[in-house]
Design brief:
The protein has about 110 residues and is of the alpha+beta class. It has 1 helix and 6 strands, in the order βββββαβ. Strand 1 and strand 2 form a beta hairpin.
Length: about 110
């Protein structure tokens, strides 16, 4: 199932990417409302990262809506960590307590 949109956005987080020349650009993480799979059991939670880091609409699946949300948060964190390792610069969340703390784990 390929998705073009996260659908109803239930949460947005803005991070700031600063490149090697000190230019800044927002990175937005959009989290969609969990939904039941139309042709299977379980739920999925769609999400997308836009701005300095771009991803297609992705989804995390779980046995229920809560698990799909929890797994989406972990997948978002992993995706951000992997992408920032490929880029020269720094990605931060203004409320993060340490580098790499984007607020998606815990």
């Amino acid at each position: 199932m390929k998705m073009k949109s996260v659908g109803k956005v239930i949460a947005t987080r803005v991070l700031v990417y600063t490149d090697a020349t000190s230019n800044t650009q927002d990175v937005r993480v959009l989290l969609g409302e969990p939904r039941a799979y139309p042709d299977a059991t379980g739920y999925f939670c769609p999400y997308q990262i836009t701005g300095a880091i771009e991803t297609p609409v992705m989804r995390a699946g779980g046995v229920d809506a809560y698990q799909s949300l929890q797994l989406a948060m972990k997948m978002i964190h992993s995706e951000l960590m992997a992408r920032t390792k490929e880029m020269e610069g720094q990605l931060v969340w203004e409320h993060g307590k340490a580098p790499g703390d984007f607020g998606f784990l815990d």
